[in-house]
Each structure stands twice: as structure tokens, then as C-alpha cells.
Amino acid sequence: MSLNSLLAGYAFVKLTMDDAELKTGLESAQKKIRRFTASIDAWSSRMVTVAPALGAAFGGVVRSFAEFDDQMRMVRAFAGATGRELEKLTELAKQLGRETSFTAAQVASGMGELGKSGFRPEEIQSAIRPMMDLARATGTGLAQASTIAANAMRQFRMETSEATGVADLLVTTANASAVDLVDIGESL
């Protein structure tokens, strides 16, 4: 018997004798893998319920941004707003969207209606707040209230500085009669 065969035999005996340690190590590894798998399963089942809500919320944000962006493009086109003028109108729409009951997209829509009526960017900036007050006071959408007031102002050749007075007059008329702002707008 040579030394090499003796060493090989020792290794075989060593492996079979230390088999208990190997089994203990494998059982420990299996327990860790099971715990890890269970935590992944729990996480994935939570994600199955959370993911649609996150997707819907994210989708709503994307839609809101797209709607706002579309409205601001219309403002630029209708009012002939240049780069800096459009930036000011965009910031104003965002600010009013944060600070009032209207969304930024609704404010932009009202601005667009003013632009359609021939209001220049600086006129839109000064007229949008009275239009918002008019819409709120009459329960009319901001775009529709802006259209009605702008048409009345243009029809009677009024200046933008008179927007607050026009809005007040329209509110008083609508609230003191059996007609609403839309009926008044059609009458005009």
C-alpha cells in the first residue's frame, strides 16, 4: 500500500465521517432559501395588488401633463405667444392650478379661450383671474366662462382692464335672474 492510496482512503473516510456536518450545512442553506423564496413571494403578491394602483396613478399624471401641455400649445397658437411670453403663461397656469380649485389644465384651457378671442399674452395674464372668479361664482366651466366674458368684452370693445367689472356684471345678472351664464352668453 502506497502513501497515495492511504491518503485517498483517508479522504474517503473523512467525507463519510463528516457527512453530518454537510447535512447540517445543507439543511441550513435550504431553510435560508425557503425564507428568501417566501419573502419574494410575499413581495410579489403585494406588488400584484399595488402595481395597478401605481400604474393608474402614474397614468393619470401622464394624462394630466399631456392635457396641460396640449392646452398650452393652443394658448401659444391662439395668442401668438413667443417663448418668454409662453413661459410666463405656463408658470401662471401652474401657480393658479396649485393655489385655486382649478387644475393647471383648466386654467390653460381658459387661457386658450381668451387667446381665441384675440387676447394677447399680457391681456390673458391680467384677465384669467376674473374669468376664474366668474366661473366659480356661476358654476360654469372656466373655458366656457372665459369664452362668454371675452366675447362680451370684444363685442362692446372693452379693454382687458375692464375684465373684473365684466365678470362682476355677468355674475350679478346670472345670479339675479332665472337664466344662467350660458343663457346670457347666448343672448349676447
Quick structural summary:
This protein is mostly helical and 188 residues long. The chain has helices at residues 3-17, 19-79, 83-99, 104-116, 121-138, 142-155, 163-175, 181-187.
Can you offer a commentary on this structure?
The chain has 188 residues and is an all-alpha fold. The protein is 84% helix and 0% strand. The protein is built from eight helices and no strands. It has helices spanning 3-17, 19-79, 83-99, 104-116, 121-138, 142-155, 163-175, 181-187. Helix 6 packs across helix 7. The longest helix has 61 residues, at 19-79. The radius of gyration is 35 Å and the shape is elongated. It starts with a helix and ends with a helix.
Shape: elongated
Share of helix, binned? over 70%
Total count of helical runs of at least 4 residues: 8
Spatial separation of the terminal alpha carbons = 119 Å
Q: Any idea what the radius of gyration is?
A: 35 Å
- The total of beta strands comes to 0
Overall residue-averaged pLDDT value: 84
- As a percent range, the share of strand residues is under 5%
Largest sheet: none
H-E string: HHHHHHHH
The unreliable regions are none
- Structural class computed from helices and strand pairing: mainly alpha
Write the SSE topology.
Layout: H1 3-17, H2 19-79, H3 83-99, H4 104-116, H5 121-138, H6 142-155, H7 163-175, H8 181-187
Q: Top keywords for this entry?
A:
188 residues, mainly alpha, 8 helices, 0% strand, elongated
